[in-house]
Amino acid sequence: MGAGAQLTVTDMRRAARHPVDHKVIGEHRRLGDVHLHIVNISAHGFMVEGELELSRGERVVIRLPEVGRIEAHLIWAAEGRAGFQFERIVRFDDFMRMIDALQPNPRLRRSR
Known about the structure:
Blueprint: H1 9-13, E1 18-28, E2 32-41, E3 45-49, E4 59-64, E5 68-78, E6 81-86, H2 92-102
C-alpha cells in the first residue's frame, strides 16, 4: 500500500495561501544570494514579486520564522511574479506559528 496521497502541483495550488509582505535572502548554487519578496505563502510553497534570474526547476534555500531553513524550487515565472514549491510540506503547527510571525496584524490573517 502507498505511503499516502501524492499531490500534483494543481492539487497543491488549491492550498490556502496567506498574504504576506516578507523579504528574504535566498541562497542559490550559481548566483549566491538572491533577494526575494514573498507576497503569499502556503504550507506547500510561496509566490514572490520581482524579476528573477532563475529558470524553472532551479532551487533556492530560504530561512523562514518558525520553520528555519527550507529548500524550494521554481515552478513558474511570469510578468514579474514567480511561484516556488517547498521540498517538503511545512507541518501545520509550524505553519500557523510562522503565519502569526509574518502577519502580526490579526485582521490580515485568514480565519482558521
